[in-house]
Amino acid sequence: MSSVVQYLLAGLGIGGIYALVALGFHIMWSSAKAVNFAHGDTLMLGAVLTIVFLDFGLPMSVAIALAIGVSVIFGVVLERVAIRPFAAQARSIGWMLTTIAIGIMLESYATISFGAFARPLPSPLAEKPVIILGAGVFPQELLIPLAAVAIVGLLYFFQRRTQLGRAMRAVAFNREAAGIVGINVTRIAMISFALASALGGLSGILVAPVIQASATMGLLLGIKGFAVAIIGGITSAPGVVIAGLLYGVIEKFVDGYISTAAREAVGFSIVILVLMIWPQGLFGRKEIVKV
User: Fold this and answer.
1) Where are the alpha helices (DSSP H) in 33-59?
2) Which of 56, 71, 80, 291 would you label with 264, given CA atoms 20 to 30 Å apart?
3) How confident is the model at residue 267, as a pLDDT?
4) CA 197 to chain centre
């Protein structure tokens, strides 16, 4: 019984990170119909910069705020130089190549500057585990899925109760119609990428005390976060969170009852199977294009 609870709690912890990453992809896709394939490196940026700022002697709160601020700037610049030039070209996939290239360059620069080794981000919630039904788990791991659920609620409120949020929903529904009624579509896309990057930086800060910060920490998390976004339905914020939590739990049970070597094979087999049955994802909506 305790082992089942252990795998469940650990799976919710890592699944929460997948959910947070997938939420970033959801925000970007909804407004720009493009995503940042270097989004995983935004997690790395938030975690690594927080440690660097702490090394400079800054308080934790200031270090976190600065790291998230740099992540926002990164998102804005990336949207401007790697996404927007291709937005006007129908069916262009140039943004895929440019964002992947930027991610590789950012990872290389971080390796040179920060080092190839991993370092933990200190957190009082990752010092002593708590025991739940015989299973030990750090409070930091429990915080991650709770943060994912809370952010979905905040995003729901933002999109429906604020003028900017309504504009983002209008752009997501119909870019052309939104532009006709006076919404600055390119600005909304830029804001969406900034918001997604802020979320990415925060995600890196949340997970760094658990898995440690390194220049390469965002690569696999970014890939799995995108896979989760596709499984859940990239147009549905609650869907990608549910898919992320389930994906993390399945991974941990595969780890425990089969082997760690089978984890990725099983996980990505699920991705293929889901898309064969539900091409739009479990909770996504079909996008109809009128011609």
Assistant:
1) 39-55
2) 71
3) 84
4) 8
CB contact at 8 A, 46 and 205: yes
Mean pLDDT of 96-114: 89
pLDDT digits (tens, 9 = 90+) for 150-159: 999 998 898 8
Nearest by Cα to 207 from 5, 6, 45: 45
CB–CB of 181/20 below 8 Å?
no
Tokens of 121: 């981000």
Q: Grade residue 124 by pLDDT with cuts at 50, 70 and 90.
A: confident
User: For residue 197, what is the enclosing H or E element?
Assistant: helix 185-211
Q: Does any domain span residue 284?
A: no
Task: Print the domain residue range for 225.
Answer: 2-277
Asked if residue 283 is part of any domain, the answer here is no
Give kind and range of the element (H or E) at residue 196.
Answer: helix 185-211
Q: Decide if 196 contacts 36 (C-beta within 8 A).
A: yes
Query: Is 29 within a domain?
Result: yes
3-state helix, strand, coil in the chain (%, to 5): 75, 5, 20
Domain membership of residue 285 (yes or no) is no
In this predicted structure, the answer to whether residue 90 has a pLDDT above a threshold of 60 is no
How many of the other CB atoms lie within 10 Å of CB of 269? 11
The backbone region for 233, taken as left when phi is positive above 0, alpha when psi lies in -120 to 50, beta otherwise, is left
**Is residue 17 within 8 Å of residue 27, measured between CB atoms?**
no
